[in-house]
Amino acid sequence: MSTRSGPPPRRGADRSRARSQQRALGRVDGGRGQRESTDRATAKARARTRRRLAGGLVATVLMVGILFVGVFPTRTYLAQRAATKSSEAELRALRQERAEIERQRAKQRTTAEIESQARGMFGFVKAGEEAYNILPGPTDALGLPDGWPFVGVEQAIYAG
């Protein structure tokens, strides 16, 4: 039954006005034209709180997902790129060093270099040549003080 008395609403503007009044009363008084009880209001407040918490939880999960999908792999990519650059620089240096060693190796395989090394390092001579060894000249005295208590120190140092 309707709580309102009077003639039924007319068509057109009156009917739409009546509907809007009923909707307004429904918002204030509830769906059936009655005031909502406090239990129902608390239930709605709890539901609203749950929705807000669920929304916050969804937003947090989305942010964590974005971090796992976007930020962490990007950081790993940048670290790998830096490691790759340093490894490439090290590889270039090693290749240059290897090229230098190969040049030295090729030079040392020549007969002239082998002869030079044999003469310098091992004292080899060609047949018919004479080798002379030149001894170093005498060294200066240490110049120990006259009151030096240890006798024979200078002789022991120069003898060895």
- Give the H and E element order: HHHH
Helix content percent band: 55-70%
Main β-sheet description: none
Number of strands: 0
Percent range for β-strand residues: under 5%
Low-confidence stretches: none
Overall pLDDT: 80
| Domains, number | 1
SS-based class? mainly alpha
| Morphology call | elongated
End-to-end Cα distance: 132 Å
Q: Count the helices. How many?
A: 4
* Rounded Rg: 52 Å
Structural account:
With 160 residues, the chain is mainly α. It has one domain. Helix content is 67%, strand content 0%. The chain is built from 4 helices and no strands. It has helices at 13-29, 38-108, 111-122, 153-159. The radius of gyration is 52 Å and the shape is elongated. The termini are far apart.
